[in-house]
Amino acid sequence: MSQPTIVVVGNGMVGYKFCEKLVSRSNQFNIIVFGEEPRIAYDRVHLSEYFNGKSADDLSLSSSSWYADNGISLHLDDPIQEINRIDKTVHSLKGATINYDYLVLATGSSPFVPNIEGIEKNGVFVYRTIEDLDLIRDYAVNAKVGAVMGGGLLGLEAAKALIDLGIKETHVIEFAPRLMPRQIDSAGSAMLQSKLKQFGLSIHLNKSTSEITGSDKIEALKFNDDTLLPVDMLVISAGIRPRDELAKLAGLQTSSRGGIVVNEKMQTSDEHIFAIGECALYNSMIYGLVAPGYEMADIVVTHLTGGDKSFYGYDMSTKLKLIGVDVASFGDAFITEPDCRTIVFEDTHKGIYKRINISNNGKYLLGGILVGEAEAYNILLQTVNNKILLPPNPEDLILGSRGGEASEGAGVMNLPDDALICSCEAVSKLAICSAVNEGASGIDDIKKCTKAGTGCGGCVPLVKDLIAGTMKANGQYVKNVICEHFDYSRQELFDMVKINKLKNYDLVLDHFGKGDGCEVCKPAVASILSSLWNDVIVKQDTIQDSNDRYLANIQKGGTYSVVPRIPGGEITPDKLIVIGQVAKKYGLYTKITGGQRIDMFGAHVNDLPAIWEELINAGFESGHAYGKSLRTVKSCVGSTWCRYGLHDSVSFAIEIEERYKGVRSPHKLKGGVSGCVRECAEAQAKDFGIIATEKGWNLYVCGNGGSKPQHAQLLATDIDSATCIKYLDRFLMFYIKTADPLTRTATWLNKMDGGIAYLKNVIINNSLDINEQLEEEMQHLVNTYHCEWKEVVENNELRKRFVHFVNAPEEKNPAIKFEPMREQVKAKW
Amino acid sequence: METTIDIEWVLACYTDDVPSNGGACVKHGNEQIAIYNFTRRGEWFATQNLCPHKQQMVLSRGMIGSEGDSCEPKVACPFHKKTFSLLSGECLSGDELQIKTYPVQVLDGKVYIGII
Fold first, then answer.
1. More confident: B99 or A708
2. What pLDDT, on the 0 to 100 scale, is given for residue A404?
3. Residue of chain B nearest A555, judged by CA positions
4. Nearest-CA distance B15 → chain A (Å)
5. Which domains does chain A have, with CATH numbers?
6. Which residues in chain A are contacts of B111 at CB distance < 8 A?
7. Would an 8 Å CB–CB cutoff place B70 in contact with chain A?
8. What are the φ/ψ torsions at residue A331 (nearest 5 degrees)?
9. Which of A337, A339, A432, A646 is most buried, with most CB under 10 Å away?
10. How far is A606 from chain B (nearest CA, A)?
């Protein structure tokens, strides 16, 4: 008996997925594919990447040999024109006539083009295929103003494409009163709108276009309110229409509003003909996303290979990044009170809008909308789909836990086994965890053996968490290695270097590494060596980052800046005069830093030793502004002058800065001391912050400013100065020994199991029984302090390294130029 | 077909001018050339001193190391850690950048660069 023939009409993403699934499960079929487009199936979801560097080949879902390798006969550029259901044959444009046993219609959809006067003019495009994109790209070369008709998901993608093409002014015209009306509500739309404006998009809502004017090419859009918008080109993205014309012609049941009617097995009104993807109408609904299309393909494959599976609708939750803005919508996003209760968080400053809808009894999450920040999307979607009981404060889901003990929340490992993690490829939590148990150890492994994360990629963070969680549950150590040369975490290497008393980089590399090292492991090992032995770092200058190598901060143009230590921000008039004199003599630009000291910019590398010689003679020391080490301990003026001050914050800040100066750490360290609760020293934004109370000091740890500001957390209350220093010794040394390279204390704490409660237990209750050792180690660093610049200034061999040209040591770098600015200079480059 | 290229060998500096496993900059006319003393491999390399990413004269101050199974020698620009092969001058960190490399010879404690 010959093999049954399956003809697939359409070679889009869903048609391809059908073939892929079928050949992986059976070789009993003769498969013939007809496609209208001239190229093999490609990734339409990421179409806009075609304009920022991806080629048509990059977007292809397979190679051209894939079809032949799998015995599939492929007819490109040859659409089926007619189906004869009585003879069970199809006829193609190029004249092929094929008998089929089963026919699969995966004809997809076409862009809906509204019937507006002038729509046929040049410069009006649709956005669906690579050919459309080529036309848009060619036309955009001469266009200055572009518009997109339609503010839905695809319309905004198209607008991004216009921006990427260099269109100076891009407009989005939406008929509805909000953007992405299918995904987000009015408040979410307003937030999205204000974010998109920042990227240069002009958005027009409630606008209906009545005419496209111009001679033969588009010149302007005319709206119902008689206003006019001059544009050079227009991309129409006003929705999709299912391609059902072939089915209609063959007498299959279709809907008057478009779509081939199918049952739960994806069968059309002819049992030998199936329809899948965007052309299929199930339960009066078209599913315009790729994931449900893949699911439909799976159902037909299951049916043809003798299995039993049905389609019961599909979750249309979606998360995407639109022009740099995260937008997500999940579950029942639009349900409103009284059918549910809603919790809304809105931050117009950062452009974040979050809404969750919870059941009236407060137990379940029903759906929600995220705009501006959608990190929680995956876990929220899982919470909806798996009917996970909500925590007592459901607002924590969108706000994070605020204060108190860390909330248990809905961690990934608490999800049920059948939780759908990757909806594009229908991969469950169980499948991912099983793959890890069978030896898969990274996201690439998981992608290979389960296909999870290979579709839209949105689930990748969740998959990573599952990998780590499963490995940890198995007692496997999740390794966080330094780089390709060292197969150890920083903490492991720290202990190994210590036990083996290794004092230089080459020895460490010989003992524990491979290859010749790199710019990642060299400074990491340098930091470890320094934190252990506190030797003069310039003795091993070539393993240091450039700033540490020259003990100064490299700036634009290649000059360096000079920062002497000014402990606690306290400085005498005489020392101020010296700084002024030195800056004047060497032509340096001066500025007060954020850490209450004075930075001198624009020094030639050749001048650094002489500059420092003068500073050191006046009593200054290195400020370590160049190092991953203690920078400053900022202080307010405190009780000596301030009428509110409770204690002498300046004296305490100086004492602490003097104690920890020069201590090298995984990342820079900043401290602060405030003399009262008004907190003028902003101590809670520092790695350690001390705030005076009536009874003593409150000690806060692990805060930082920077790009991701985080408040420090309270470690101890009402302690005296000696206890404060003891806790600081332990805290800092514990951080130095256990943090990953270039990890600030805040991130270190965020990653720590048990968080601040655990840290308190270590530092205050000595739960690890290491406090005595930590204090000793810190005392060693304090005792071995040296001013790094003093070492250089007094050593002629070291001084000689501060030249630009080794073969012309007197000459300065001629590439460095300055220009005047507000009575000082700035680098010209 | 064989072609011969005339290489002019220029005395650039002395071996002890360049720190072990690090770089130094030499002046050749109006050019700045970075020389690397890769002690660990017993090799010397030379490249342009200008990092093409942000046009900074700094490559000689970058850290050197190796990458991958083939241990490709490389230098990392101190500004933004763009890395370049010391053999081909190709950017190894994914940018479309290229730097010039020069042949190096060491004789009697003197370092010579080959200028083509």
1. B99
2. 44
3. B79
4. 11
5. 5-109+242-304 (3.50.50.60), 113-238 (3.50.50.60), 633-794 (3.30.413.10)
6. none
7. no
8. 55, -145
9. A432
10. 13
Residue pair A365/A354 in contact (Cβ under 8 Å)? The answer is no
A538, A542, A608, A800, best to mutate vs chain B, most B CBs in 10 Å: A542
Is this prediction's pTM over 0.80?
Answer: no
Of B19, B26, B55, the CB nearest to A805: B26
Q: Does A519 contact B24 at a Cβ distance shorter than 8 Å?
A: no
The β-bridge partners of A797 are: none
DSSP annotation string for A569-616: G---HHHHHHHHHHHHHTT-EEEE-TTSSEEEEEE-GGGHHHHHHHHH
Q: What's the rounded Cα separation, in Å, for the pair A485 and A199?
A: 41
Give residue A184's identity as a one-letter amino acid code: I
Tell the residue number behind the tokens 């495009």, with chain if given. Answer: A125
The single residue listed with the structure tokens 């809670």 is A684
Tokens of A472: 């940890």
Phi, psi of B57 (to 5 degrees): -85, 75
pLDDT tens-digit profile of A108-140?
A: 999 999 999 999 999 999 998 999 999 999 999
B56 found inside a domain:
yes
Tell me the shortest Cα–Cα distance from A394 to chain B, in angstroms: 42
A801 touching B (Cβ < 8 Å)? yes
* Inter-chain CB proximity B57 and A815 less than 8 Å: yes
- Encode pLDDT of A449-463 as tens digits: 888 887 776 777 788
DSSP assigned state of A318: E
Cβ–Cβ below 8 Å for A518 and B24: no
A516 touches chain B (CB under 8 A): yes
B8 or A580, which is more confident: A580
CATH of the domain at B51: 2.102.10.10
Neighbours of A643 (CB within 10 A): 5
End-to-end CA distance of chain A: 78
Q: Which residues contact A555 (CB under 8 A, 6 or more apart)?
A: A561, A601, A602, A827
Check whether A90 has a pLDDT greater than 60. yes
- Give the residue numbers spanning the domain of B26: 8-115
Q: Single out the residue of A473, A373, A469 nearest to residue A421, CA to CA.
A: A469
The residue with tokens 């205050």 is A764
Q: Which among A721, A716, A631 is positioned nearest to A672, based on CA atoms?
A: A631
Site from B63, B83, B92, B112 to mutate, A interface, most A CB atoms within 10 angstroms: B63
Contact list, A556 vs chain B (CB under 8 Å):
56
Q: Domain for residue B2, yes or no?
A: no
Helix (H, G, I), strand (E, B) or coil at A785: coil
* Dist. CA A524–CA B65, nearest whole Å: 14
